[in-house]
Amino acid sequence: QVQSAVNAERNYFAIGLHYTGSAQDLLLEMESGDDIQNFALLIEYQAPTGIFSGDPPTASGYSLTNYPNPFNPQTTIEFKLPMSETITLLIYNNRGQLVKELLNQQFSAGVHKVIWDGSNDHALRVASGIYWIYLITPSYRKTIQTTLIK
Predict the structure, then answer these.
(1) Does a structural domain hold residue 50?
(2) Whether residue 38 sits in one domain with residue 67
(3) Considering the domain boundaries, does residue 53 fall inside one?
(4) How far apart are CA 85 and CA 133, in angstroms?
């Protein structure tokens, strides 16, 4: 059983998950005051057939790194693309809020670098802390952590 609270425009309600029947049946119960709504969900599940050993698979030809890390006042973000495609490069804070959209454009195959100067979309310096660099392409997504120190 899992309980969580959700804020839907300041209307709070609890979501309870209750497992019933086989491992493939799930009853989702939503409560809002005295009103209870039930939804039946079918979850497709296939038992594992073996144990994977070795390194996890990676998308061939892609990479995302930054240096220095930790950084002050700026960090170089380096990404590698195996083909020409549109990429989006975003910075999020540790609370999951978008801080800055660094890039949203077409790039050719190869290695590319961009500098993040520790500022947000309003050109204001952000506070010291942990930040997440998120690379998005049509066929690949990768997130890495970086730390700004002052």
Answers:
(1) no
(2) no
(3) no
(4) 18
Condensed to tens digits (0 to 9), the pLDDT of residues 8-24 reads 444 444 445 445 555 55
User: CB within 8 A of 145, min separation 6: which ones?
Assistant: 130, 131, 132, 133
Positive/negative CA dihedral, 47, 53, 59, 60: negative
In terms of Cβ atoms closer than 10 Å to its own Cβ (0-12, 13-18, 19+), residue 148 is: buried
H/E element, 91: strand 85-93
Residues of the chain with pLDDT under 50: 1-15, 17-18, 55-57
Tokens of 53: 């050993």
Beta-bridged to residue 40, according to DSSP, are 27
Contact, 146 vs 66, CB < 8 A?
yes
- What distance in Å separates the CA atoms of residue 20 and residue 70, rounded to the nearest whole number? 47
Of 65, 63, 69, give the one whose Cα is nearest residue 141: 63
Clarify whether residues 114 and 84 are in a common domain: yes
Number of domains in the chain: 2
Sheet containing strand 75-81, edge to edge, reads 63-67, 75-81, 110-116
Asked if residue 67 and residue 38 are part of one domain, the reply reads no
Residue 54 placed within a domain: no
Residue 141 lies in a domain: yes
Under a CB-based contact definition with an 8 Å cutoff, are residues 114 and 102 in contact?
Answer: yes
